[in-house]
What does this fold into?
Amino acid sequence: SELLARSLFACGISTVLQTSLGSRLPLVQIPSFEYLVPAMVLSSHLSPVYTRITSLQNSLPGTAMASTCPAPHCAITGRRVASLREVSGAVLVSGLVQLVLGVSGMCGWAARHCGPMVLAPSLSIIGLSAYKEAAFFCSTNWGIALLLMLLAVTFSQHLGSCRLPFCAWPQAQGGSTEPSVPTLRTFSVLLPFAGVCIVCAILSHLHIPWESLDLAVAQLSWANSTFHAPWLRIPYAGEWGWPLLTPRALAVGIAMAIGCSMNSVGCYVLCGRLLQAPRLAPHACNRGLCTEGLGSLLAGLLGTPGGTAASIANTCATGLTQAGSRPSVQVSALACVVLGMSPRLAGLLTRIPLAVHGGVLCVTYAVAVGTGISYFQYADIDSGRNIFIVGFAMFMALLVPRWLGAAPAHLATGWVPLDLLFLSLLMVPVFLTGFLSFFLENTVSG
It folds into this structure.
């Protein structure tokens, strides 16, 4: 819970910077999947307990956080504390690299040269890359997950134009009363989420078994207990030791920065597309990446194992609700800061059922897949060149991480930091899709 609180604190600060000084899009900042994979790659090299990349790739995101909790009540070894400090050093390096990419203008230059043949497969893979985690979460109770998905689809699609009369308020001119927004669509994510959580709470109160958890997840729930967490603790840099800067951390940090930068550029495009806004200018992309770098610097100094990046799930939820506004995102950022200063309150978030998380992922990431497919209308998809670029980039993005997860020993250059750099990059589908499609689009004639 204390690691979660520190991460929420850094994300809240980064969200405020992003909405006020950065891209100025209504984007919530979170520790993204592109931070998780390199962090697990580095941890697998440092600790003999995690020697298989396959088990790391298939494990619950957050297990590594719970197992390396350096709070006084956690029974951990000095090696795990050093591992967390080295991962925090990689996060710190990633923030510095993102600042360099933003200040130098490389982010804006790359965004300007990304056409439909780059955006279509990249956004589609961003959505498809979360299917394994979504299926894992939903498997704890498919009934709960399907109920949430049914309600979200009904509210956002079938009843998207429904306006409730008691939600009307007077207009500025004429004094007439008129509903201003489709109410059910606006709350098409919040209402199903709250309703399903209430159902789960009622089932638990009645002692009706409804959630199937394996041993690893049960141990994670026990590790995330909030009984011993303090009500108030303001995080500060160096409380758990300063980040370790080693050649391994440097290599993994560079991989984190590259993967998260590509994810963030895709998120900027996705947000503008869903809100039907003009495409973000290159200088705005550079500012956005700079603010994300500052957020990652703060996260690394606070000792968290993940930096900050634009949230794909929240962006897709904005597309479902069509309620994207900077003030609402800034209110959520303030809530994150408050939770970050109270580990016990932050620990309550770990009580949200995994099936609810799975249902939300299924609904939101499907929007990213559909948005990516919609970009094909701006390209000649009947062209053999374009068909090959899209098919090859997407297929390799799904194949290579699977191959490396099954046999990571095949990648051995003789220098460990270089191995970690390549492995951290090649295990991220977004990097593979973006790199291959960008390279082929700008080098293959046609």
